[in-house]
Design a protein that fits this description.
The structure is a homodimer. Helices cover about 35% and strands about 15% of the residues of chain A. By secondary structure, chain A is of the alpha/beta class. Chain A is globular, with a radius of gyration of 21 Å.
Chain lengths: ~400, ~400
């Protein structure tokens, strides 16, 4: 009798993005001529930079010749990529090459990282939150069934509000492992140095571990803001960091990311012995993963070449100009919004007491614009709405015009 | 206090391939001029087929142009690949497109699949066995600590012996989920139709689920042997199948594979309700994975074009001629071996009561050949030794000559 993992049943059937897809398809079926502009899912639209495609072509050529063919690579990633990451992203930050684990995506890394912790570990997430952090812990069995309040018993929720700038403080109760995303998906807000210092101090005082998801760090515009948690003294003792090439180099369909685990981040076993999480992740990564594609790793490394840096920075500047236009255009239409300065997401406050799904339906029905209802990111997202700056300039300008006509 | 997953500590520190690497490095340091031939790890050596590199180049070009750029793809894989898989690998076998899940590798799939089952589920593996099946279940907590007999209490071991042709029968005791690999890694032997019928009958009679790992199916030479478990009546009710492009198309560094889960394969929840495993895997795949690279999927699809099929079949024929030469060369040196007819692996019996590590050390020290000690695949592998046929013809011939000189 094949007994199943009973925890999957705790996840609601109607997941956020399929439900959005259903409503958009229904609208388009009823209005076949409508030109729908999609600012919902955070997917890039600019093509890969020439430096990257050139590197990928060279890699494909290498694999087509016996003398330069490569089979299995190191599961942790090739030295050429790890060294480039270290030199550019962690210069002066005391991160060793073997503390960097290349992967095929931050979604995988952020879903898999919970395997390092006991099933009895107490997990903290923000609310609103990137759903993978929550769902992967539900599937592992660390929660009860979804409550009527939209929360899973067993998780600690830290609510992001306008009052705290959507950057909640660390928890008061004991927690083993906390997920922190900055620049934040979905709110587009960013943690300051002082806020990160508070998190690191909390983790060290409580012997807790932080997962710092910095998938959007390349969108930070203010040089005073930290890009890495390791810019905070003491973070090497308590923090794991995620980075991704998805939004930084247009790799959403190419697939490359990495996780940093300093050897000094410790967990504790049931006998009270301190164990480096690095050793556990190394075992997990080499046992259940077989390395990112060689061609992809060559493309990712090219994002660090002088040409690659210039080209990808220009893409990011393009998206951030989209975000600025959206922000000012929405303000002119009377909307209050947050984020969008150090991240490609705007977090809109709904108006007239509308729920986030009501705003979704109105934007789709009256302006043919698809966004993401805040409630899809947790109960703390109710009353808010996420718009993405990933699109062509023409579509962004068209979207602003429509919103101003409908709501202005 | 970050409480860790205590089950990782049950895994021995000295993993098979790192230990092999350590001994080879030590030998080479002491004998810097020795020309070591590596027939250990099962990694391909022939370059990618031209049809595949051409498709990958085209895909890279598409990603470099705004009009043809693609971001996030479907987590389950693009239709162009899924349809090619279905048409070529499952023609007439009643597998729907949405029952195929493209991934970045069979190592990942075979490590992740256990997440579908209860932590209390009883797991059966063969011995010798591909280590990922065992280790992923140990990490999940389904076993006790490694016993002095080299086995984990809580797992059901089915021992492959010369008497059963290294194809053990299904278990007598109740089991929820069984891993079956054919053509087999490590033994290179293959299950017959009658043997697979027995497995399917057992699974249906016991309401159990089989994972059929067919990563090496393209090496099957006899048209009477099944390539897919779904060639067996009733398998749609009880079997999940894995396939990979690694050995079929030289993708060990490119990374692409797929899992087939018919919607008719059921598990049972704690309330006794029957639940399709397809729904659980779909949730797992979309929550913790973000699709294989677009460039890689285009390359994989090209393996099914007329040119791609011809070119990859020629590569497989080349490796299998290597296997034939090894088989006859080893027999001439007085070795008894198994497998190597429908798989690129030979399973050698050691001589004069040597352990598998003793043969390893002798082959390395006297013939400068690296293989894999059978004991690394479980206690049932003691007294045996795996040699891979993946190498150049010149190296295979040189290896045979050395073995004949040392042992002949």
């Amino acid at each position: 009798m094949a007994r199943i993992n009973e925890h999957f049943a705790k996840l609601p059937a109607g997941y956020l993005f399929p439900e959005i897809g259903r409503r958009v398809r229904a609208y388009q079926a009823a209005h076949p001529d409508a030109k729908v502009i999609r600012l919902g899912i955070g997917d890039v639209t600019e093509p890969l930079a020439p430096a990257i495609t050139e590197a990928m072509h060279r890699a494909v050529d290498e694999l087509g010749v016996r003398e330069t063919f490569r089979g299995y690579g190191p599961e942790q990633g090739y030295d050429f990529l790890v060294d480039a990451i270290r030199a550019h992203d962690y210069a002066g930050l005391d991160i060793a090459a073997d503390e960097i684990f290349v992967s095929d995506g931050s979604k995988c890394d952020s879903g898999n990282v919970q395997e390092l912790f006991s099933l009895g570990a107490r997990i903290a997430v923000t609310d609103p939150v990137y759903p993978v952090y929550v769902d992967s812990n539900v599937m592992a069995g660390r929660t009860g069934p979804l409550g009527a309040d939209g929360r899973y018993p067993g998780l600690t929720y830290l609510v992001g509000t306008e009052a705290n700038g959507f950057q909640p403080d660390p928890p008061d109760e004991p927690v083993d492992f906390a997920y922190l995303c900055s620049p934040n998906n979905p709110t587009g807000t960013v943690a300051t140095r002082v806020q990160l210092e508070r998190w690191v101090a909390w983790a060290r005082a409580n012997d807790a571990v932080i997962l710092f998801d910095a998938a959007y760090e390349s969108y930070i515009a203010d040089p005073a803001l930290p890009h890495s948690i390791y810019e905070i003294a003491g973070a090497r003792e308590c923090a794991i960091e995620l980075r991704s090439f998805s939004k930084r180099a247009g790799f959403t369909g190419v697939r490359c990311a990495f996780m940093v685990i300093p050897k000094t981040v410790m967990g504790v076993d049931p006998g009270g012995k301190r164990v480096p999480l690095h050793a556990l992740w190394s075992r997990r990564h080499t046992t259940k993963f077989n390395g990112a594609s060689y061609v992809v790793q060559r493309g990712a490394a090219a994002a660090y070449s002088p040409e690659g840096l210039a080209q990808t920075r220009a893409q990011i500047a393009f998206y951030m100009e989209n975000a600025r236009l959206l922000r000012t255009g929405l303000a002119a239409a009377g909307f209050t919004s947050f984020g969008g300065i150090h991240a490609p997401y705007l977090w809109l406050r709904t108006r007239d007491g509308a729920t986030s799904w009501e705003l979704f339906d109105r934007l789709l029905g009256e302006a043919q614009i698809v966004g993401t209802p805040g409630a899809g990111f947790g109960p703390g997202g109710e009353g808010y709405f996420r718009l993405s700056a990933f699109n062509s300039r023409a579509n962004i300008e068209e979207a602003i015009g429509r919103i101003q006509r409908v709501f202005g």
